[in-house]
């Protein structure tokens, strides 16, 4: 009998395996519907099941359940098991569970299949091969399904939760303490002015190795047997070897020990020095004056013998004799004899002259010369092949400055600055690293030219060198000292100390990665500025205590810890369970953010703008935009502003390099505030620089519509964060600076911990924070000045009000404390643009600053309920405390009292009491501010409930609501460098999100290999599971790219800028290939009639004017310098290319000697007042794909400085967001590389094949781009994503303007 299969297929046996863990943890929250009950209900049942895809590894099986008291569905998250069946998974990401609801499936992303359900334990056998085959075919069909959008969003959330968890593991590992093993020592570093600028703290630490590893012992034994001599490698892997011994061990490692032992490529040379003596200085002076003089030195008798090479008598000028204290003593004759074997013999006869003067000396010398002719003939008869002689004077002198005094060491430090050479003042040694003996000889030759010291026994073949060996199996571990040292260099370190029986954390300095070893950590303690000195006070005081010992030291990564907690909280805000939360800042302002942050098609479109952009001009909104346009915009920028202005949820703007993202941001702020000045905007970015640039672009008076510029005062920006990290343009909007303007003794109220101590943005250059600058240069004072200027303009039109207006203007331009506070409160009340970095928006201090600034409604209640009267009572108590010397609160009380008196222009306590009895509005504002900031501090004040009541709050929950952050619009720049948690941090505070980035540039700086190795090195099952989810696509694709490239996203909420104004058209042609697939491509928007104008004052000119035969001419703006040399690799596989370093140096030499170069640099000196802006114009950017190459290029930086040139040196990744007039790119990679075995071929360009990285590298230059590298190798490199040739078009475009130059031909200045 035929039975119809209503599902279109036969029944499939669905085999589900489970473990005891599944039985125990399945749907833990449900105590009724257990796994065993579900199993009992479903076993051997035939029913339709629904299969969907969670990701490439996991599937979801939804099965309807119908049983007494158990009606609904069960969802099993499953993975394919090696037994050709499904395994049920129960964990944090795979929540297999029961739900009392009917199956709700989207058939587009689901397969419906009739199944017979079988449950098996993991060890059970199942040998029905037909059933296995059917189930396998079903699994393959499910694997080919699309993943449902809702599942994609959930996967993304889980993945980034894992990422945060993994980062936490790594930070925790890096914070493991180093145990101290002895007494530390402190060394002051003296600056050019003779003051201490920093200290070095040397801290001995325990080293785990207690004996020489067996691999080293075997190696030493084999060396002795092979060569009949011994070498010693200590337990740390260090050895002192000569050049010959080094060559031998390299051969041994290559032929026999390469699997056991490796040698660090860097070798350390130590060379003894001594100050130049009188003889050395005199010889150098004679050479400098190019005198044809022989100078011999008899060390035994301390005689200088001076004679002319042409045989004539020497006459030394009196100034030389006086300068060096020379004393004439007599004459000498030097005979030089050569025998038939060309062996050379020297014989010197000396004759002292009593009471010598030049007359006597000449007489004695003449007699000695006559006798020398006879002596010469005698010597020639004694079978000498040739004999020559010279007669001269002898001098004696008193040796001075032959000791190592402070002047010598200071002069030495100045001479060696930037050369990567360390100094040991104790042993009179110089230390430096080298990788080849050719480089060593170059360095020794360079040092031998010093005018203040000389090298002692610096002969390469005789010198011993420090060499470091390592065991191969111990490399690349997270626990390795080298890994930690590299990650923690320049990071702040702390120690725990007991002070008055209380444990306190003490700052001890920033790690000096270069000088630290496995036995001793070296820390740098900045001491230049007041804040530095205050921070260093604790450790310096304890260093004076001979009994003080440190038990351990550790990295202070508090900033990273708190930022990760903020990122974790940001992801949790997307949880749908929080949709009804009443707690402040626990859910996004726009509930749809939880969907469109991962799937941009979920954002609401602006249907009016779904028409073609060329028809926008017909829209009334477009016409209105043009009427109130503040800045000059091109067509693509206008379209972008229009879409962003009217977007409801989200707008995505792609801004390629130089296309005016800052201009668009400024216009967007203007347009939003002009529509409604009461609206609040948050401007945020990954860096402070981008935020500050946008504010300055908007508020600066340059390039704005003159008709509308008077109305700029409706925009009132503020900057939240640590002001010392801001650019000067941003500091004027800083809340901290405004508070210091109000009170010059103000101390920071709210600390942004992410900006204090972390792995991010810490370099040697950043260790010294800049001083705060002029506090009068702030937004409130500028606003007051603007009002005063308007009043003056009014007075000019109405002279009868002139006197009154002058008084008013004076009070605004030179305000007292009362006036300052009045206008500050007004400015804060109407502040409508807040600027901050993305990470800082997650800080509790951001919420505190927000609540403090937007507190006018709370203040009104405070005044209405007369809460200030109780605060006045507290202040009067402070007056008593301030006068009580025994009160521990005295200093704080005095500080508060003085602040009130300063701000209200009173001088006595009687005046203060009188003021408090009849408080003015200014005093009430002060009292309110005083109370509110006590509540907002993270440390809860003792009188919390009392202060809460007098501020007018009915409950703590009501107070917490003041911290609930709300912005009508969030504008986020540099979004392509942000991870989803970084995006969510600021965007969750906005009703509308405008995200600006460029996915054709670099994504977030996540390194797949390092990240995976670090996770796996933790030897933790959870970490290993996380590593499985970190793939190359995850690392190399930014979230911004996922959003803007979503094929389903509405074109009404995304836009692309298509004209760039940074680069010369020739440079634009080299990078436009990266944007050919984007709407509109990328073209140069500069006026072609002005772009080559020699007038550097012309804003659109990209002229440089350099001319050098065989190198460059004014019409060349792109240039490739060929370096066909092997790349090199350190023992840790870091890449560099020393020949490219030499090539960059030669390029700089040719630029320096080019006609027009000096005039070009002089122009900036003569026409730009700002030192910061002038340096940016003059600096030459030198960038590379590889950090190791940047370290080697530091040598070029020193060379450039000595030649009067400024360089900005960095990796391509860290140069993103910056630009310079001239940029040199060192590519490093080659078709060959050096090894101990010789030259080996290479066909892998590594991440140099990333189109995003190449795009960033080539798009930093404005006037001149020079690429240094192996063009023949790169000509065949293909895009890692598309497979298209990547560099070919670049090289081809460059060759249109200038032929490729081989660096070997650039020899004129070598």
UniProtKB/TrEMBL annotation:
<dbReference type="Pfam" id="PF13087">
    <property type="entry name" value="AAA_12"/>
</dbReference>
<feature type="domain" description="DNA2/NAM7 helicase helicase">
    <location>
        <begin position="953"/>
        <end position="1006"/>
    </location>
</feature>
<feature type="domain" description="DNA2/NAM7 helicase helicase">
    <location>
        <begin position="633"/>
        <end position="847"/>
    </location>
</feature>
<dbReference type="InterPro" id="IPR045055">
    <property type="entry name" value="DNA2/NAM7-like"/>
</dbReference>
<dbReference type="InterPro" id="IPR041677">
    <property type="entry name" value="DNA2/NAM7_AAA_11"/>
</dbReference>
<dbReference type="GO" id="GO:0004386">
    <property type="term" value="F:helicase activity"/>
</dbReference>
<dbReference type="Pfam" id="PF13086">
    <property type="entry name" value="AAA_11"/>
</dbReference>
<feature type="domain" description="DNA2/NAM7 helicase-like C-terminal">
    <location>
        <begin position="1036"/>
        <end position="1271"/>
    </location>
</feature>
<dbReference type="InterPro" id="IPR027417">
    <property type="entry name" value="P-loop_NTPase"/>
</dbReference>
<protein>
    <submittedName>
        <fullName>AAA domain protein</fullName>
    </submittedName>
</protein>
<dbReference type="InterPro" id="IPR047187">
    <property type="entry name" value="SF1_C_Upf1"/>
</dbReference>
<dbReference type="InterPro" id="IPR041679">
    <property type="entry name" value="DNA2/NAM7-like_C"/>
</dbReference>
């Amino acid at each position: 009998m035929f039975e119809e299969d209503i599902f279109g297929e036969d029944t499939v046996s669905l085999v589900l395996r489970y473990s005891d863990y599944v039985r125990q943890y399945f749907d833990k929250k449900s105590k009724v519907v257990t796994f065993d009950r579900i199993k009992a209900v479903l076993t051997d049942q035939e029913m339709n099941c629904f299969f969907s895809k969670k990701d490439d590894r996991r599937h979801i099986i939804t099965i309807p359940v119908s049983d007494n008291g158990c009606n609904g569905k069960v969802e099993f998250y499953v993975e394919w098991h090696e037994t050709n069946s499904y395994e049920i998974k129960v964990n944090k990401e795979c929540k297999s569970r029961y739900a009392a609801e009917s199956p709700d499936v989207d058939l587009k992303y689901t397969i419906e299949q009739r199944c017979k359900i079988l449950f098996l334990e993991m060890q059970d056998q199942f040998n029905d091969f037909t059933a296995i085959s059917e189930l396998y075919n079903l699994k393959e069909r499910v694997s080919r399904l699309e993943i449902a959008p809702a599942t994609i969003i959930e996967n993304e959330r889980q993945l980034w939760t894992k990422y945060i968890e993994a980062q936490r593991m790594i930070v925790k590992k890096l914070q493991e303490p180093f145990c101290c093993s002895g007494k530390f020592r402190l060394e002051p570093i003296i600056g050019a002015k003779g003051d201490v600028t920093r200290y070095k703290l040397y801290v001995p630490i325990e080293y785990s190795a207690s004996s020489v590893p067996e691999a080293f012992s075997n190696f030493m034994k084999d060396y002795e047997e092979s060569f009949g001599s011994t070498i010693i490698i200590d337990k740390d892997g260090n050895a002192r070897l000569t050049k010959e011994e080094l060559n031998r061990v390299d051969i041994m490692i290559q032929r026999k020990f390469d699997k056991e032992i490796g040698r660090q490529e860097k070798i350390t040379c130590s060379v003894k020095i001594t100050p130049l003596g009188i003889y050395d200085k005199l010889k150098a002076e004679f050479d400098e004056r190019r005198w044809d003089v022989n100078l011999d030195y008899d060390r035994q008798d301390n005689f200088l013998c001076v004679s002319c090479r042409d045989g004539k008598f020497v006459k030394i000028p009196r100034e030389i004799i006086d300068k060096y204290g020379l004393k004439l003593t007599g004459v000498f004759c030097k005979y030089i004899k050569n025998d038939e074997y060309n062996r050379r013999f020297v014989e010197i006869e000396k004759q002292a002259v009593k009471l010598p003067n030049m007359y006597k000396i000449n007489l004695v010398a003449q007699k000695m010369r006559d006798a020398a002719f006879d002596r010469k003939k005698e010597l020639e008869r004694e079978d000498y092949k040739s004999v020559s002689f010279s007669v001269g004077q002898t001098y004696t002198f008193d040796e001075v400055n032959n000791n190592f005094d402070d002047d010598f060491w200071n002069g030495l430090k100045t001479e060696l600055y930037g050369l990567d050479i360390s100094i040991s003042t104790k042993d009179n040694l110089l230390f430096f690293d080298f990788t080849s003996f050719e480089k060593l000889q170059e360095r020794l030759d360079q040092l031998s030219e010093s005018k203040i010291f000389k090298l002692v026994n610096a002969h390469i073949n005789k010198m011993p060198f420090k060499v470091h060996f390592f065991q191969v199996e111990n490399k690349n571990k997270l626990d390795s000292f080298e890994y930690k040292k590299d990650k923690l260099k320049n990071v702040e370190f702390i120690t725990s100390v007991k002070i008055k029986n209380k444990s306190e954390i003490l700052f001890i300095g920033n790690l000096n990665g270069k000088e630290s070893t496995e036995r001793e950590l070296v820390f740098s303690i900045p001491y230049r500025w007041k804040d530095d000195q205050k921070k260093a006070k604790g450790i310096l005081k304890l260093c004076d205590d001979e009994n003080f010992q440190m038990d351990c030291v550790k990295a202070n990564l508090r900033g990273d810890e708190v930022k990760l907690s903020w990122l974790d909280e940001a992801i949790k805000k997307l949880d749908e369970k929080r949709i009804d939360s009443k707690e402040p800042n626990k859910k996004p302002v726009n509930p749809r953010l939880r969907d469109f942050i991962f799937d941009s098609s979920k954002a609401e479109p602006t249907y009016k703008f779904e028409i073609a952009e060329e028809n926008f001009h017909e829209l009334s909104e477009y016409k209105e935009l043009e009427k109130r346009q503040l800045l000059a915009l091109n067509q693509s920028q206008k379209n972008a502003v229009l879409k962003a202005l009217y977007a409801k949820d989200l707008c995505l703007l792609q801004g390629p390099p130089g296309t005016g993202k800052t201009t668009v941001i400024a216009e967007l702020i203007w347009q939003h505030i002009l529509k409604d000045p009461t609206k609040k905007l948050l401007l945020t970015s990954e860096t402070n620089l981008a935020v500050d640039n946008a504010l300055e672009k908007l508020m600066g008076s340059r390039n704005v519509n003159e008709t509308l510029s008077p109305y700029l005062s409706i925009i009132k920006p503020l900057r939240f964060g640590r002001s010392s990290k801001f650019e000067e343009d941003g500091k004027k909007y800083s809340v901290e600076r405004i508070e210091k303007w109000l009170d010059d003794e103000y101390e920071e109220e709210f600390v942004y911990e992410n900006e204090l101590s972390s792995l991010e943005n810490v370099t040697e250059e950043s260790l010294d924070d800049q001083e705060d600058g002029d506090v009068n240069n702030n937004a409130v004072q500028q606003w007051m000045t603007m009002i005063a200027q308007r009043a003056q303009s009014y007075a000019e039109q109405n002279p009868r009000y002139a006197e009154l207006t002058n008084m008013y203007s004076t009070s605004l331009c030179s305000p007292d404390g009362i006036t300052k506070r009045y206008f500050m409160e007004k400015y804060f009340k109407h502040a409508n643009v807040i600027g901050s970095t993305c990470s800082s928006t997650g800080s509790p201090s951001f919420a505190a600053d927000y609540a403090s600034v937007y507190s006018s409604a709370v203040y009104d209640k405070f005044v209405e309920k007369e809460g200030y009267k109780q605060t006045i009572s507290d202040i009067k108590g402070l007056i008593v405390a301030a006068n009580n010397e025994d009160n521990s609160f005295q200093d704080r009380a005095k500080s508060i009292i003085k602040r009130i008196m300063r701000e209200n222009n009173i001088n006595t306590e009687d005046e203060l009491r009188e003021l408090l009895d009849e408080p003015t509005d200014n005093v009430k504002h002060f009292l309110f501010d005083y109370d509110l900031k006590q509540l907002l501090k993270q440390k809860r004040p003792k009188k919390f409930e009392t202060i809460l009541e007098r501020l007018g709050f009915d409950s703590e929950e009501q107070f917490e609501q003041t911290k609930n952050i709300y912005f009508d619009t969030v504008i986020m720049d540099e979004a392509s460098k942000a991870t989803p948690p970084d995006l969510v941090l600021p965007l969750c505070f906005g009703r509308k999100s405008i995200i600006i980035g460029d996915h054709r540039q670099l994504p977030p700086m996540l390194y797949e290999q390092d990240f995976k190795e670090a996770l796996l090195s933790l030897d933790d099952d959870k970490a290993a599971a996380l590593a499985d989810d970190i793939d190359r696509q995850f690392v190399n694709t930014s979230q911004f790219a996922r959003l803007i490239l979503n094929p389903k996203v509405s074109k009404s909420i995304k836009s692309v800028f298509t004209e760039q104004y940074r680069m010369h058209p020739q440079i634009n042609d080299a990078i436009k290939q990266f944007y050919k697939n984007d709407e509109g491509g990328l073209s140069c928007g500069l006026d072609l009639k002005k772009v080559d104008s020699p007038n550097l004052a012309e804003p659109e000119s990209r002229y440089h004017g350099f001319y050098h035969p065989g190198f460059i001419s004014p019409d060349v703006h792109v240039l490739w310098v060929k370096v066909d040399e092997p790349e090199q690799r350190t023992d840790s596989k870091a890449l560099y290319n020393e020949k490219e370093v030499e090539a960059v140096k030669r390029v700089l030499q040719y630029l320096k000697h080019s006609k027009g170069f000096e005039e070009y640099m002089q122009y900036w000196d003569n026409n730009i007042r700002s030192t910061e802006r002038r340096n940016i114009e003059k600096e030459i950017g030198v960038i590379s794909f590889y950090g190791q190459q940047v370290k080697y290029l530091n040598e070029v930086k020193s060379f450039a400085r000595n030649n009067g040139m400024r360089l900005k040196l960095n990796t391509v990744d860290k140069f993103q967001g910056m630009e310079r007039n001239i940029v040199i790119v060192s590519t490093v990679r080659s078709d060959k590389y050096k090894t101990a075995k010789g030259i080996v071929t290479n066909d892998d360009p590594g991440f140099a094949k990333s189109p995003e990285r190449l795009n960033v590298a080539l798009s930093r230059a404005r006037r001149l781009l020079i690429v240094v590298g192996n063009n023949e190798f790169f000509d065949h490199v293909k895009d890692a994503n598309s497979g298209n040739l990547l560099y070919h078009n670049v090289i081809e475009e460059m060759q249109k303007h200038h032929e490729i130059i081989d660096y070997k031909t650039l020899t004129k200045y070598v």
